[in-house]
Amino acid sequence: MPTPATTPNKAQQAQIARKYGMFIHFGINTFHDEEWTDGSKPASSYAPTQIDAEQWIRSARDAGMKYVILITKHHDGFCLWDSPLTTYDVASSPNPTNVVEAVAKACKKYGIGLGLYYSLWDRKANANVGDYTLDAEYNTYMIAQLKELLAITRKHTHVVEFWFDGGWVKPNYRWPVTEIYQTIKSVEPECQVGINWTIGDPSNPDAHPITPDKQQAGYPIRYFPSDFRLGDPFLPVDNDPKTFTHDGQQYYMPWESTVCISQRWFYNTGDNSYKSVDELEKLYRQCTKNNNILILNCPPNRDGRLRQRDIDLLMELRQRIQP
Questions:
Q1: Does the N terminus or the C terminus of the chain have fewer Cβ atoms within 10 A?
Q2: Can you tell me the distance from the alpha carbon of 73 to that of 79, in angstroms, rounded to the nearest whole number?
């Protein structure tokens, strides 16, 4: 469990020093021009012609990024690894490549940190989120899948961050946050764990959404234990607060911004509007000052490769921000 503190611990200092990374949204949504599918799209519709994980990670390295965060399972429940617990995964698709392992290998090769995104909300395996009697079975499923991911990645590299999403569909007490945290830390003690929409309101610790401009020092931690704050795609304010509370104790928590380089999280055939280099530089400056972090989303296309426009913009931005 985290130790109360008003300054960053060693693992948080390492996260702050990473400063800049790439979000990699890739999955079944990539093939449907949708951001949130509901678990009903057939696994056969996930059909990348290749998985060029080395291109993704090499591009991140060349852009000056220190780590990536890969979508392993989005709200639709489709898994980018062969999970024995479900047939809704790459093993049931035309391209059975274990994307999690491919990215882990590439991260080791190019000296880039590996982060993993996992959606708590699963519209396939836990479709009836209103029925709390199903929580125990689904929570067991989640913990088992996290152990699968850790078993895959630890053969190749360390996981520096776990990024959890979708908690808002249930009250916070219905999620096994402590078990999630301890499962990860037992294997990767330096891994930073965050759950989207991390902070609540003094009048309601489970309030949603409390955007960063509304957060004040001492506000309650909605999902405890957590190591850092999330609330995409919002940016931190100048001199944002860093200390938040749980059970009367203060905890230091930096903010991690997650922003799209274009308009969509997942590749979409209609997504042709990109942020300018000026916009991206402004984002970078705002998101990385005050001990905070920027994660810029660059979605691979249906050929399993990053778009050339993404790469070109990253390289232009590198020229602006390099020391």
A1: C
A2: 5
